[in-house]
Specification:
The protein is an alpha/beta fold and about 240 residues long. The chain has a single domain, classed as TIM Barrel, CATH 3.20.20. Helices cover about 45% and strands about 15% of the residues. It is built from 11 helices and 8 strands. Strands 1-2-3-4-5-6-7-8 form an 8-stranded parallel barrel, surrounded by 6 helices. The protein is globular and about 45 Å long. The two termini are about 25 Å apart. The site of cytidine-5'-monophosphate has 17 residues, from strand 8 and helix 10. Cytidine-5'-monophosphate binds next to strand 8 and helix 10.
Length: about 240
């Protein structure tokens, strides 16, 4: 199957709202052009540490202007007041999702959630959804007890969702059934895993209950990113609701 065979995703494609494109680049212009090329398959654009270091909140503003829901993935982790104050600033910038590391604890997560709401209210926007990162997908060991504790922390502190590996979903779903489930670390079967340790295929992740897949290098570094994105969407389309 080629990208041309698959074509652009149809308008209203079911897969699109479940796919977040990790724009791990050091230049906003390059990130924007890659995002525009892949927009038929991705409703969400993720700004991570690299792009944020290069362009700051301007990256969020620009990608939102281009029509994306923006996922600001800074995995904030510091003392509660520092995180709360940073979250207030981020709450003004138009992101749809902002990540915090659950290892920071309940007070830190709650300060982050409150900060996002306060910042958004100052500019008359809806508050971004706070997502709690449980255990990084690059970490080999994720004990079930730790995952359950971190998912419960995210729930108790008012996060709207959690970020975890596909393999963690059964434990995390049991601990926090109502939270949005965001899953990075997916790869087509047999593809290079790079620095990820706990990988699954996109269809396994969706079948296990992922609501939103974060996809980076398997598409952005493919020889033909459009073709890789089209294949990805075709793979999950029948598994999403
Ligand atoms: O698909 P790929 O492995 O390239 O995705 C990597 C992206 O997902 C990076 O932007 C990384 O920050 C992000 N991410 C992750 N693991 C997490 C949370 C986010 O790999 N637990």
């Amino acid at each position: 199957m080629t990208g041309a065979d698959l074509g652009a995703a149809p308008v209203g494609d079911r897969a699109r709202s479940h796919l977040a494109l990790a724009l791990d680049l050091d230049d906003l212009g390059d990130a924007r052009s890659l995002a525009r090329r892949l927009a038929p398959w991705f409703a969400v654009a993720k700004v991570g540490l690299e792009l944020f270091a290069a362009a700051g909140t301007e990256a969020v503003r620009a990608l939102a202007e281009d029509g994306f829901e923006v996922f600001l993935d800074l995995k904030l982790h510091d003392i509660p007041e520092t995180v709360g104050r940073a979250a207030r600033v981020l709450g003004r910038c138009g992101a749809r999702y902002v990540t915090f590391h659950t290892s920071g604890g309940e007070a830190m997560l709650a300060a982050g959630v409150a900060g996002l709401a306060a910042g958004a209210a100052e500019v008359g926007r809806a508050a971004p959804a706070a997502l709690g990162v449980t255990v990084l997908t690059s970490t080999r060991d994720a004990p079930a007890q730790l995952l359950a504790e971190r998912a419960a922390l995210a729930r108790a502190s008012g996060c709207a969702g959690i970020v975890c590996a596909a393999a963690d979903l059964p434990v995390v779903r049991a601990a926090a059934p109502a939270l949005l489930r965001v899953v990075p670390g997916t790869r087509p079967r047999g593809a290079p895993v790079h620095d990820q340790a706990r990988v699954a295929t996109p269809e396994e992740a969706v079948a296990a209950g992922a609501d939103l897949l974060v996809v980076g290098r398997s598409v952005t570094r493919a020889d033909d990113p459009e073709r890789a994105a089209a294949c990805l969407a075709a793979t999950i389309r029948d598994h999403v609701t």
